[in-house]
Amino acid sequence: MQEVLNLIGYDIGGTKIGIGIGNSNGEIYAKARIENKDTKPETVLPQMVTTTLDLLNKANLAIKDIKAFGISSPSPADIPNGIMIAPPNNPYWRDVHIKEFLQNALGIEGFFENDANCGMLAEGFFGAGRGSRDAVYLTMSTGIGGGIVANGRLVHGKGFLAGEIGHAVLDPGGPKCNCGLTGCYEAFCGGRALAQRMQRELADWPDHPIIRFAGGKLEDIDLVALEKAVRINDEYAVKLWDEMCLRNAQAFGILLNTLNPEKIILGTLAWAAGDLFMEPVRRYLPRFAWKECIEACELVPSALKREIGSYAGLAGALNALYERGRYQLPW
Ligand SMILES: [Zn+2]
To answer: Which residue among 11, 64, 190, 231 has the highest number of C-beta atoms inside a 10 angstrom radius?
Structure first.
């Protein structure tokens, strides 16, 4: 039996920063969230340190009891150096050396990983991917981030850009993507892209059920409003949903035939919509992947769901220790 490692995890989100103290078995001793909407790093970074020390106190631990911390960060980022380059939701954070700052302030070793990879690792160590040596995780939220574990290892790629399945081009004649390419998977199926499409297409249709479900506001349309309209069989909504499920199946097909994974773990949309999403996707899959690859793979919703952020940074730290031979996988 290997020792249980105590770890600190940071989850840097667009509006909140989650901080959790826990261990390598996935037990969380204490956690907190601090505001991160339009903040400046010079205020928030010291606040992260004081909150961490408070949490350690609450958990009856001292900093010397902690093996390492992990930071789950939005892209773009300099992964090996732990620098947040330009997080999309906050104009004040530019080239923030967050890993170095926290290492100096806390006096322990830290690691840094992108948030989709941390999502994969969190599900892999503590959730739906536990025990799986070949798995893929997709965030399925406003954007589509991805993380890949192959042969029991997180795939980083040469420049730490592996796993960006959301920006695989499914159709060069498709919609323009924020990343600069055209027809990306995310441009078809990401929550933000779909919301923008609906806002455009329903602009002259003010009494449409989707707008009603969005509280009567065109600008508040989201996937939740779309899902509700699908459930009452609205023709436009059903057609759009079906198209979205087909494009998801196409993307999963690429993953299935490329990686032959044992599990594809799906974030927000899959656990929120359930069979309304999973059933058509499963039906379309044989068009995009070999039978053997489909049969070998379980398509499952995230097990950690909304709580995934509490585990993301911890999982990033644990994986970094594993990659350095300082933690053994129990499977
Ligand atoms: Zn793209």
So the answer is: 11
- Kindly state whether residues 314 and 225 are assigned to the same domain: no
Amino acid residing at 281: V
Cα(142) to centroid(ligand 1), Å:
13
How many CB atoms lie under 10 A from the CB of residue 158? Answer: 6
Which DSSP category does 134 fall into?
A: S
251 and 189 fall within a common domain: yes
247 C-alpha to center of ligand 1: Å? 14
Three-class DSSP category at 125: helix
Domain that includes residue 74, residue range: 6-122+307-323
183-236: pLDDT as tens digits: 999 999 999 999 999 999 999 999 999 999 999 999 999 999 999 999 999 999
Structure tokens at 291: 């039978």
Tell me the C-alpha distance between 242 and 169, whole Å: 19
> What pTM, to 2 d.p., does this model score?
0.96
Question: Are 51 and 32 a contacting pair, CB within 8 Å?
Answer: yes
- Tell me, in angstroms, the distance from the centre of ligand 1 to residue 262's CA: 26
For residue 20, what are the CA distances in angstroms to 27, 33, 70, 116, 230?
10, 9, 10, 18, 38
Q: How far apart are CA 163 and CA 317, in angstroms?
A: 19
How far does residue 219's CA lie from ligand 1's centre (Å)? 23
